[in-house]
Amino acid sequence: MNGGDPDAAGVAQPKRADARRNEEALLGAAAAVFVSSGVEAPIREIAAKAGVGTATIYRHFPTRADLIVAVYRHQVEELAAAGPELLAAGPTPYAALERWFDLFVGFVVTKQGLAAVLQSDDPCYDPLHAYFLDRLEPVCARLLEAAAGSGEIHSGQDPYELMRGVGGLCAGARTGRRYDARRLVRLLVAGLRRPR
Question: What does each C-alpha distance from 85 to 97, 103, 120, 139, 145 come to in angstroms?
């Protein structure tokens, strides 16, 4: 008998709100450090940025791979949730589309910091690209459909193609100070607009 202990029965307990907030702060700090210092940055640097001890990071993420996967998935989920929120907030579907792609640029630049690891032979990273497409392509499609439905952009845009295009524009973001990926992506998204 397990004495009524749900953990003993293998049922995962939902995280407390403060534990969720701490984990989100830790993942945000890790993402920022990955961009600035690379994925091989010392764990103590991530801990310092998050305002926690290294033991806290290892308690949540026993290996560096666990942390990298968690950062990636967390950022994908934030982007997926942002699409409907931006559409609801307005002021127009096109404004929501512009804002979402600005957030998408931030994600892609962080992802580039992870690129060497994500393309490694470690099988734990294999499902991440499919996860990215499964979660974000429908969100992008919904934003495009809403903006086309309001008459703000040309209809028939391919979300996958557009996301790949943005990824290509972001590829040079880390190469030089005169390269502004956000500005170039704004120009790309502006090119979708219907003439008034």
Answer: 11, 13, 34, 11, 15
pTM across the whole model = 0.78
Using the Cα atoms of residue 153, residue 183, residue 115 and residue 135 in order, give the sign of their dihedral.
Answer: negative
How far, in Å, CA of 98 to CA of 90, rounded?
Answer: 11
Strands, E assignment, the chain: none
Share of the chain above pLDDT 70, in %: 81
Q: Which CATH superfamily is domain 15-62 in?
A: Homeodomain-like (1.10.10.60)
CATH of domain 68-190: 1.10.357.10
What is the per-residue pLDDT across 52-98, written as a single tens digit (0 to 9) for each? 889 989 988 998 888 988 988 888 999 999 999 999 998 999 999 99
Q: Where are the domains of the chain?
A: 15-62, 68-190
In angstroms, the Cα distances linking 24 to 62, 108, 119, 140, 146 are 16, 19, 25, 24, 30
In this structure, is the dihedral angle defined by the CA atoms of residues 118, 120, 126 and 130, taken in order, positive or negative?
A: positive
Could you give the CA distance from residue 156 to residue 149 in angstroms, rounded to a whole number? 11
Give the residues across from 193 on adjacent strands.
153
List all residues 6 or more positions away from 193 whose beta carbon is below 8 Å from its beta carbon. 94, 152, 153, 154
Rounded distance, CA 49 to CA 9, Å? Answer: 37
Q: CB of 196 within 8 A of CB of 108? A: no
